[in-house]
Amino acid sequence: MKRFFSPTRLFWGNGSSDSLEGIFKERKIMVVIGRGSIKRNGKFNEMVAKLKKNNEVVFFEGINENPLISEVLKLREFIKKERVDVVVAIGGGSVLDCAKASVTVLNENNPEVSLKEKKVVENRNVVFVAIPTTCGTGSEVDQYALITDENGDKFSFFTENSFPDYAFLEPMLLDTLSFRWIAATAIDAFCHSLEGFFSIRSNDITENLAISSMENILEFLPIVSEKKEESFEKLLLASSLGGMVIAHTGTNLIHAFGYYLTKVKKVPHSFANSSLLPFYIEYLKEISEEKVDFFMGFLTPEDNPGEYIVDFLKKLNLPAHLKEVELKEEEFDDFFEYGFSKPNIGSFFKKVEKKEIYDRLKEWFSRER
Ligand SMILES: [Fe+2]
Question: Does residue 129 sit in the same domain as residue 241?
Fold first, then answer.
């Protein structure tokens, strides 16, 4: 049996967040943001002003990158204390994930256990709105929240009830990000769609969404400076489509191996994935199957998809190799073991033999470039 479940009401395009005004009136709304850089964004200020017209608005500011369990619990306490009706999270993946987790465990008696065991018994009684300011995570339409535990390990919290109720994609919210970050987060979205496409859990719907998402990124990422607003909209949409894909498929090899780089080498998630993307394409290329042939043809009409993707990343000034994120020879085995221990490995559409992938990855890593 195959299924598709995407319960978030999604609105996109310039002005799409105007509908917030019609949806919420005379409510108490909490706006949750990160370290505050978004306050320099004109669209953000316009949105907040509109919310304030007919509602009482309170703020929770200061969600950090890679939110800890303690931050999720702190935000939860604040939401309870303020007795808000609606939580509007506006930010990158960390802000959306932290707010999503807090809202989902809002009424749990033991929220920490609920987070760790991914078990929620009570229904939440606040509406959760997610508005992304990066074009990578897809968190605005999926059920996942990446939280960091007391050992510094990340775990994914999710339940059937943790999808946002509403998501708004406002293109000009991307305008405060540097181009390099826009590119990096878009490549994270590309990896979501790519890994989703080659997942054991992919289906007809997720495959079509994945192709459409990757198409938008390949077409619009290189022309951001020429067609800003249109490109921002397409990249945000690509990211949401990627989110819908991984809501069903999860990720696999790129994300699994990328976790070590983030945990130990402190490489930001998107850059870690970018550095592994060319290997994934090369690894796929060796698998002779219609699905792979179709994908390679989609990626480039040329005969060298591996070089094509390296070139694409280089033009965006993004890492295209593990050495570009400073992984050292002597760290390789730890890096490999950590990545291979992740459950995502088992989601790749073909069985992955440990020795075979070790040899291939090592050879690629050691190759003269
Ligand atoms: Fe990701």
Answer: no
Q: Give 239 Cα–ligand 1 centroid separation in angstroms.
A: 10
Separation of 122 CA from ligand 1 center, angstroms? 29
On whether the CB atoms of residues 272 and 262 are closer than 8 A, the answer is yes
What is the Å distance from ligand 1's center to 96 Cα?
13
Ligand 1: distance of its center to the CA of 138 in Å?
A: 9
Ligand 1 centroid to residue 193 C-alpha, Å: 10
User: Virtual CA dihedral for 266, 241, 33, 171, nearest 10 degrees?
Assistant: 110
Distance 270 CA to ligand 1 centre (A): 7
Q: 268 and 239, same structural domain? A: yes
Q: Note whether 111 and 143 are same-domain residues.
A: yes
pTM exceeds 0.90, yes or no: yes
Report CA(353)–ligand 1 centroid distance (Å). 24
Specify whether 183 is located in the same domain as 154. Answer: no
The CA 216 to ligand 1 mean position distance, Å, reads: 17
pLDDT 10s digit of each residue in the chain, 369 long?
889 999 999 999 999 999 998 899 999 999 999 999 999 999 999 999 999 999 999 999 999 999 999 999 999 999 999 999 999 999 999 999 999 999 999 999 999 999 999 988 877 889 999 999 999 999 999 999 999 998 888 889 999 889 999 999 999 999 999 999 999 999 999 999 999 999 999 999 999 999 999 999 999 999 999 999 999 999 999 999 999 999 999 999 999 999 999 999 999 999 999 999 999 999 999 998 999 999 999 999 988 999 999 999 999 999 999 999 999 999 999 999 999 999 999 999 999 999 999 999 999 999 866
Residue of 100, 254, 107 whose CA lies nearest to 190: 254
Q: What separation in Å is there between the alpha carbon of 247 and the centre of ligand 1?
A: 12
